[in-house]
Design brief:
The protein is α+β, with helices and mostly antiparallel strands. Helices cover 26% and strands 20% of the residues.
């Protein structure tokens, strides 16, 4: 009704034994998709997951572009933005925000990032959800090494 879509990881009825950080990920971290200011384009907020000291997956909303690149992997961000008509930008248009440039990621001012993609693109939000929300938890529990793609 409001034009928003969500990507949510649901917990199946029977879940094999797994580390708490991974089992706590089920149905906790949503990624909202909404229309951007440009016609025919959608926006997904880029909030990478981290696991807190209690084994609970959390999100970090405000990072420098350099911190975001280190958290997610610069090559993974570039892989996403190399897709046709996909861009990474500051989520909000304010004059005091530095530019988002993956060739020279800034490390001075934290900001919220957004991934912009065509409304007809069904793959980019799923890839982004896996990269930003699921992969960091899999790395934390040791089910995926930092070298794995």
């Amino acid at each position: 009704m409001n034009g928003e879509r969500d990507l949510v990881l649901h917990k199946p009825t029977v879940v094999p034994e797994m580390p708490s950080a991974l089992s706590n990920l089920h149905n906790r971290l949503r990624s909202g998709i909404c229309a951007s200011a440009r016609h025919g384009e959608l926006r997904l907020m880029v909030y990478p997951t981290y696991v807190d000291s209690h084994g609970r997956p959390r999100i970090k909303k405000s990072l420098t572009t350099w911190d975001l690149a280190n958290a997610v992997g610069l090559h993974h961000l570039k892989e996403l933005t190399d897709r046709e008509s996909v861009d990474l930008e500051a989520a909000f248009d304010r004059p005091d925000l530095p530019p988002v440039d993956l060739d020279d990621p800034q490390h001075e001012k934290p900001l919220q990032h957004a991934l912009l993609f065509p409304a007809t693109d069904d793959e980019t939000p799923v890839i982004a959800f896996v990269r930003f929300r699921i992969v960091p938890v899999l790395r934390h529990v040791g089910w995926l090494s930092s070298d794995d793609d």
